[in-house]
């Protein structure tokens, strides 16, 4: 088991955002958490990557307990988050932004990492010396994902990669995510676009107001009447 989450509770002051959720990701899987706005998807990722401290519960990554550890230690273990909103450093170039994802690695590793990222995102190579502020929405998502990949994650966590993108770009980003997974990186994907997410995931969990209300194979959930009416617009 690569990631195991048990009874995770997260509070923001008096507000309970997660009421004890449990789920897991096996090595090699794409797992998606789907749910509406405010269901607790981003909070889950933030708690896993050490950005918020859980109130209670257990998180094991590769057999080691990580809940409450600092974010940089968690990232070094290979659990890496691509944040929602794709906030790169707009005055820095594509190259500089990518290098930030691997600042603690050797030059040779950084070069190899950059080649890997350009393999997935050829468009970033063409933009390598441009500042991030000049990129389109889709290119920013590529840059954010590429920066995550530079850290050589074992599990890459993506928060709403489809947000604000045109349908064509959403297709492109999702096919790249699938490709990154085929090359050996496990993926935990948070999405409001349940149809696309269930299209590339192996398994899925449905979150509603801080609780897991359904789980199963992505194919099963796509056929589930409750999922269809609540999330697939059918
Ligand atoms: P979205 O897609 O809008 O990000 P989400 O499923 O990721 O939705 P969260 O952002 O995790 O949901 O929010 C879960 C709950 O926690 C919501 O009720 C939200 O209002 C609350 N919340 C999130 N961040 C904070 C915060 N910094 N302070 C207080 N409450 C918060």
Describe this structure in words.
There is one protein chain. 39% of the residues lie in helices and 26% in strands. The chain is of the alpha/beta class. It has a domain at 3-85 and 155-231: P-loop containing nucleotide triphosphate hydrolases (Rossmann fold, 3-Layer(aba) Sandwich), CATH 3.40.50. The strands form two sheets. The protein has a six-stranded mixed beta sheet with strand order 6-7-8-3-9-10, sandwiched between helices. The protein has a four-stranded antiparallel beta sheet with strand order 2-1-4-5, covered by helices on one side. A hairpin with a 2-residue loop joins strand 9 and strand 10. The N and C termini lie far apart (34 Å). Bound molecules: adenosine-5'-triphosphate. Adenosine-5'-triphosphate (ATP) is lined by residues 12, 15, 17, 35, 37-43, 192. Adenosine-5'-triphosphate binds at residues 12, 15, 17, 35, 37-43, 192.
Task: Please name the defining characteristics of this protein.
234 residues; alpha/beta; Rossmann fold; binds adenosine-5'-triphosphate
Indicate the topology:
Blueprint: E1 3-12, E2 15-25, E3 30-34, H1 41-48, E4 56-61, E5 64-65, H2 71-77, E6 79-82, H3 94-100, H4 107-120, H5 122-126, H6 137-150, E7 155-159, H7 167-182, E8 186-191, H8 194-200, E9 203-208, E10 211-217, H9 218-223, H10 225-231
Helix pairs in contact: 3-6, 4-6
């Amino acid at each position: 088991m690569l990631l195991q989450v048990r009874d995770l509770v997260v509070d923001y002051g008096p507000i309970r955002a997660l009421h004890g959720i449990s789920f897991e990701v096996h090595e090699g899987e794409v797992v998606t958490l789907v749910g509406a706005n405010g269901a607790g998807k981003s909070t889950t990722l933030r708690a896993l990557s050490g950005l918020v401290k859980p109130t209670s519960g257990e998180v094991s990554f590769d057999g080691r307990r990580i809940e409450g550890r600092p974010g940089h230690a968690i990232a070094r273990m290979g659990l890496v988050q691509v944040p929602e909103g794709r906030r790169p450093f707009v005055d820095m170039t594509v190259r500089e932004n990518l290098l930030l994802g691997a600042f603690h690695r050797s030059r040779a590793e950084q070069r190899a990492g950059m080649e890997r990222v350009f393999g997935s995102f050829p468009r970033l190579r063409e933009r390598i010396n441009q500042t991030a502020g000049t990129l389109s929405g889709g290119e920013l998502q590529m840059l954010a994902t590429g920066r995550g990949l530079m850290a050589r994650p074992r599990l890459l966590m993506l928060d709403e990669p489809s947000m604000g993108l045109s349908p064509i770009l959403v297709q492109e980003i999702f096919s790249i995510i699938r490709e990154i997974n085929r090359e050996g990186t496990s993926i935990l994907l948070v999405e409001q676009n349940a149809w696309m997410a269930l299209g590339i995931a192996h398994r899925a969990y449905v979150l509603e107001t801080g609780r897991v209300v359904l789980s199963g194979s992505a194919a099963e959930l796509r056929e589930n009447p409750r999922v269809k009416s609540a999330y697939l617009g059918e």
